Amino acid sequence: MDIPLQPRHTRLRWITVAVVCLVLVGCARSIPVNTETTIRPLKVSQHDAVDQHAERPAGSESRSGMSLNDEAGPEEYIRYALRHHPDLDAAFHRWRAAAERISQAQILPDPRISVGFILDQVDSSAEYMGEQYTIEQMFPWFGTLALGGNIALIRAHAEAQRYEATRLQVMDQVNRAYHEYAFQWHAVLIARENLDLLVDLEAVTRTMFRTGTATLADVNRAQIEIGRLDEQVRSLEDLVGVSAAELNAVLGRSAHARLPATPVRPTLHVIAALPEYTDAQWLALARQDNPELAAARYDAEQQHLAIALSRKNYFPDVAVGVEYARGGSARMAMMDQGGSDMLAGMISINVPIWRGKYDAEIREAQALASESQRRIESREIRLEADLKRALVTHRDSLRKLELYGQTLLPMARQTRTTTEMAYRAGTASFSDLIDTQRVLLEFALAHERAAADQAQAHTRIQALIGGRLNERREK
Q1: What pLDDT, in 10s, does the model give residues 194-245?
Q2: What is the β-pairing status of strands 342-349 and 318-326?
Q3: Which domains does the chain have, with CATH numbers?
């Protein structure tokens, strides 16, 4: 529609109002997303949180400002890893990027401003025909921006859960690697102690052989046993190097980085008792709080909203604009009392005629929604199996700790001592003495192994149920 213009100041007022309105509309947000699920803003870039249920990293201490001293235990290792592990840093930045996409998804497209000039008139002798100025704002169909904002919000929630899953995974990996390293370290010490005992025993046997109270076979048997145990010590020392490299890897350091001198012995590390829940109760907790499962559920919700968003393609987008055409005669006038200028309102829409394309987009979104739902089922099955294994390992290690620590290991030490006394007195064979020495070494290693397994299973259970053990103990 054409609106004849009045004096110039009236035209300028209309143009100014139109431009301001369109710019304000273009900068405004669309329909707000669901505020019940709005996540908190991310304000920090470090993650030194060791608290089991920290939702995001906190603190401003420099990443390079923390080191491990010789008295460092598992907690200090975990704190170090939370500051330095690259996977956790990457997960945090994915979360922050997803949060920044929420506002982007709710904003209207930028307004379009265009200017037209007459470059070549058909009749060059005619008066100059003027210019055209157009400003236009496109509005997506009703609900499109709100859906896009909610999808971005849910995606940010999913990335927040993946960050938490990565945090718990790093804690679990560090704890397992630390206790494996501690076990291998002290296994070497235990094996060396037994080797020293065998060396002393071999010296005693040689003395007894010279006095005729022992045979050459006993001496040979002692030397063979020393060679076998020496090889075992060397193998255990190699495993210490492997365990150290794995621990450095989960700490985000070079495999050859120096570790503190002596790790805490597994049997001396105090592990808090788990609540006395049934397997069904543990599984219910894991299904409720496991962050990987929560992220999969957010993914499924996101895909269901994507189906609704795809259906918006069947409806047109609407563009509203204003065009101002300025005639040549108005340019020459000092005071325009009519002239040939024109202000026109415009409405345009796109025509969604390619329905085959839109149908395919909906089918794609439906397939992704089905895939995400199946992923939830797969994750629940895997979660149940992992939790079952961790619980069984924890219970088995507790039984072994009590069995070896309170019964078998004290008995083995006593048997070894009495057998050596009997051998020196000539009432026991050298084979009996060697057998008791082997049993003592086996039980000592099994005792430390059970302690390491308990600590590893404890942290694994905590990671699978979302790291909320401290809260439940307080309740």
Answers
A1: 888 888 888 888 888 888 877 888 888 888 888 988 898 899 889 988 999 9
A2: antiparallel
A3: 1-25+73-139+321-351 (no CATH), 164-315+356-475 (1.20.1600.10)
